[in-house]
Amino acid sequence: MTEADAQVVIRTRGLTKRFGDLVAVDAVDLDVPRGHVYGFLGPNGSGKSTTIRMLCGLLTPSAGNVRVLGLDIPREAEALRLRIGYMTQRFSLFEDLTVHENLEFMATVQGLSRHDARRRIDELLQQYHFQDRSRQLAGTMSGGQKQRLALACSVVHRPELLFLDEPTSAVDPESRRDFWEKLFELADAGTTLLVSTHYMDEAERCHRLAILDRGVLVADGTPATLTAALEARVLRVDADQPRRAQQVVVGVPGVVSAAQIGNTVRVLLAGAAVGEGAARVRDALHGEGVRANVTSTEPNLEDVFVASTQRGPAREVA
Asked: Which residue ranges does the record assign to the ABC transporter domain (predicted)?
């Protein structure tokens, strides 16, 4: 193994999963660097969860090669189990057990000795701010507290690699921020994290992103690299009638999407239409009697997401 290979904790080539005639994951090539927070972004049904389950060894690929932490998956999935953590959106805490008892149970499942488990649980109770809640039943906690406990249970054995499948979809914004602080503490300590999410603000936090659409890897890179690729393709339309402006702009040739944001309309242009796109938008608005100012604006990750997953005609985004 070369030094470069040692810095890649997940490598897939041609990773494919079929369920009958449905191709859920289609020939995906991934390289996840060690110590990174790697984001997985995609619409519902894009294959994110299926991919994660194959990487964990929980699903057998239909085709392709997978190496995780230097192990051949799924052949060496049992050896991998003790080196990874896995937290899902519906992580099952035992609600009739206390915080301490949930941690004890997971420590036992992960094979920690009684002495090591006691020390590790004490650390986690302090790290995750459960010192005064260790005897509280998990079922009586808030959604954010349950997610924090779920994360603590997932890392009780100090995994080298942590998979998180939409872990914050059911918690409030403040709890999400706190949760992400914990994720970066893990990354700073050397843990590699692969996180699937629907939230653009979470995607922006990741060191690197992969975007899946209908099982196909359609984008892969740092947030800065992905947004830079859309330079000059995003317009801002300031209009007296923003709703009317959106309805007009969405029908302009070369427009991929038009989203009303407050009193402005954000317009994404197709690559081939960059040169003439702004002029076409201005002409269309003028022709419909809509007074508007059209200017170029900086792209963001939502633009990247729309550009990567849009395969049909232009759409009006609410």
From this structure: 10-239
Distance, in Å, from the CA atom of 118 to the CA atom of 97, rounded to the nearest integer, reads 17
Instruction: With H, G, I as helix, E, B as strand and everything else as coil, classify residue 191.
Output: coil
pTM of the model: 0.88
What are the residue ranges of CATH 3.40.50.300 in the chain?
A: 3-222
What is the per-residue pLDDT across 142-166, written as a single tens digit (0 to 9) for each? 988 999 999 999 999 999 999 999 8
Bigger pLDDT: 1 or 185? 185
pLDDT (tens digit, 9 = 90+) per residue, 232-249? 899 999 999 999 999 999
Amino acid at 310: Q
CATH number of 228-317: 3.30.70.100
- The CATH superfamily holding the domain 3-222 is P-loop containing nucleotide triphosphate hydrolases (3.40.50.300)
Residue 225: what are its φ and ψ, rounded to 5°?
A: -65, -45
Contact at 8 Å (CB) between 212 and 46? yes
Burial class (CB in 10 A: 0-12, 13-18, 19+), 224: exposed
- pLDDT tens-place string over residues 39-95: 999 888 899 999 999 999 999 999 999 999 999 999 999 999 999 999 987 667 899
**Distance from CA of residue 187 to its chain's centroid?**
15
292: left (phi over 0), alpha (psi -120 to 50) or beta: beta
* CATH 3.30.70.100 intervals, the chain: 228-317
Asked if 317 and 259 count as a contact pair (C-beta separation under 8 A), the reply is: yes
Distance CA 5, CA 290 (A): 57
